[in-house]
């Protein structure tokens, strides 16, 4: 029964489409500006976005380092 469910879900995943294909035109190659980024940069919001991303990534890095230290301490206690 489990195999049939897995096979069924596999076939459904082959049929599912996340997005429709859109053809690439010559205008796509000539587009040199990103409207959203230009607007955010002109309003000064891009710096807020970059700082928030930096804070989140910094928090993840601190968490990983603390977890690594805790695991190293537990490994030392277990080996002794």
Summarize the helices and strands and which ones pair or pack.
Layout: H1 2-15, H2 26-30, H3 35-43, H4 45-79
Describe this structure in words.
By secondary structure, the protein is mainly α. It has a domain at 40-80. 79% of the residues lie in helices and 0% in strands. It is built from 4 helices and no strands. It has helices at 2-15, 26-30, 35-43, 45-79. The protein is flat and about 65 Å long.
Which features characterize this protein?
80 residues; mainly alpha; 79% helix; 4 helices
Which class of secondary structure composition applies to the elements?
A: mainly alpha
The SSE string, one letter per element, is HHHH
Q: Strand portion, in percent?
A: under 5%
Largest sheet: none
Tell me the span between the first and last alpha carbons: 48 Å
Silhouette: flat
Overall average pLDDT: 85
Number of helices: 4
Share of helix among residues? over 70%
Briefly summarize what is shown:
Residues 1-18 form the signal peptide. It contains four helices and no strands. With 80 residues, it is mainly alpha-helical.
């Amino acid at each position: 029964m489990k195999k049939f469910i897995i096979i069924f879900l596999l076939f459904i995943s082959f049929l599912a489409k996340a997005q429709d294909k859109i053809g690439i035109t010559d205008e796509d190659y000539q587009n040199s500006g990103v409207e959203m980024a230009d607007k955010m940069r002109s309003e000064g919001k891009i710096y807020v976005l970059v700082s928030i991303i930096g804070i989140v990534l910094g928090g993840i890095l601190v968490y990983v380092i603390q977890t690594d230290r805790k695991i190293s301490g537990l490994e030392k206690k277990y080996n002794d």
